[in-house]
Amino acid sequence: TLPDLVYEPRYKSRFACERYSPLICPNQDLVKELHIIKLAREMESEERSALSYSRAISVTFPEKIKSMSQISDIPYLGDKLTGMIQEFLSKSTISQARQLSSDTRYQTLISFTSVYGIGPHTARHLYDLGLRTFDDLSRYLGSDDNAEGSGGSFAWREGLRLRDELSVKIPRAEVEEMGRLVDRALQDILPGSESTICGGYRRGKLESNDVDIVFTHPQGQGNKANNMVARLVERMRKDGLITHTMRESRSLRPATNHDGWDTLDKSLTIFNLPKTSPYYKGIHRRLDLIYAPREVYWTAVVGWTGSTMFERDLRLWAKQKGLKFDSSGITRRRDTKALYATSERDVFKLLELEWIEPRLRNA
Ligand code: DGT
Ligand code: MG
Based on the domain organization, do 112 and 149 belong to the same domain? Predict the structure, then answer.
């Protein structure tokens, strides 16, 4: 059953950050079909097209759709999507989605991008070289003529080796255990630190693909932010909890925003539970550690809770209010004044946005 609030007219808002989006919606089968088409567009880096599918998927229509007239005032439904939904209503499938799911190129690109470190661009390159299977990838990596060199492909070399483990989803109890171990390491090296498990876990997902932990320290303000992530990672490596660091980014000053997400210090790592843990299964897990200076901690928590569509629209919403939002802070555009939130609710208040529970941010 859906929370009552989903039925409010606000489900028609153009902004995902104004809508209530529970984990499961009444039109899950339709979403599944559209999701396949969206993924196909992502695999080909057709971002605009992918976005229009993502937007349509992100709307929670509060009941099972039976006729087109019900959805005439839903935002973001262009001719193409309307046609597909029509087809779905009469046939319970969408032919384009059916075709794609049996298409070799689609299947191969999907499986290649399931390797940590391989994005659509690399996947297409590998496909164009004629590679089709994980064995092909391993052989290619082992051969001398691969163009990636030994450094550039380190991440996905390891990603490939650990692929089977990393594709096992992480149940909530294990996410919590990982959170406890991170916090213990944190209290050891930086007593008084605070941390929050964000990402899909916080939105109520029963199983996660990775664990995203945002942390801060009372003394960590402004320039003192340096090295917090590196110190935590080093400690956890020594304890055998972290086996790999896949990508690190140090916030540069003046702040730059390379990937369009944020300028926070973070490390994308691979984690391994100790054998003594009751949750130990010998499976490596992806763990993202993000450090936020005290004054932007709650902004970072909102920014890393997601969903991705919720975050995207939060940025658009802020822009429309004359503000700039990302996980590393809220600033007023007119004079670039930084606005600091003292709680998660305060983030919403500063953005002039009605409060939405993390569990209803699954847009
Ligand atoms: P999953 O796949 O079970 O881990 O699901 P999520 O929703 O946890 O997805 P994930 O881990 O890719 O990302 C967590 C949220 O954080 C996501 O909803 C949007 C946001 N996010 C992802 N990557 C970045 C990033 O590089 N910077 C910032 N600021 N946020 C990010
Ligand atoms: Mg996650």
Answer: yes
